[in-house]
Amino acid sequence: MGKLVYSMITSLDGYAEAAEGDLGSGAEVEEVHTFIGDLFRPVRTFLYGRRMYESMVFWETAHSLPDAPPHIVQYARDWQAADKVVYSTTLESVASERTRIERTFDPDAVRRLKDETDHDLSVDGPNLAAQAIAAGLVDEYHLFVTTSVVGGGKRFFPDGVRLDLELVDQRAFDSGLIHAHYRAR
């Protein structure tokens, strides 16, 4: 049985998407990117909303960029090897291999997917993750906390949901970014 993992870069005040601007720096350095690549290599299925998929589809061709460093090439190859499910009512087609579109998020279908696989799955994007969290599907959380306070936007954790989490691991990077890994109790 696979675990469903939710991970996002988040501001110090808990926003996975800033209302204005970006979430700050720290995640783009090689040390952090390599850590994220190693951490998510076991994930073989990514669940995306349309906007998150449109930002991640970059990895379909990132390996072919001139002078792409090895950690970028490795992440691109890992992403390309994984299955992708995009939940969207508006997306007409996909621009990556191993990708399918679902028109609605069905918690029971995701539960079956988790039960029937021997690898981990990832849900990405605060809107889609909020649905998975509300349905009790998320097993682990990885927060990559920047040093910025952004004052508003879309929260990492949705409003109205209470969770009791266990801290599994934490790591601080030289860039100031902090990784916190939690498991649902």
UniProtKB/TrEMBL annotation:
One Pfam family per UniProt: RibD_C
Gene3D superfamilies: Dihydrofolate Reductase, subunit A
Superkingdom to which the source organism belongs: Bacteria
Bacterial bifunctional deaminase-reductase C-terminal domain sequence ranges: 3-177
InterPro entries with a match to the protein in the record: DHFR-like_dom_sf, RibDG_C, Riboflavin_Biosynth_HTPR
GO molecular function: 5-amino-6-(5-phosphoribosylamino)uracil reductase activity
N-terminal signal peptide: none
Biological process, per Gene Ontology: riboflavin biosynthetic process
Protein's recorded name: Dihydrofolate reductase
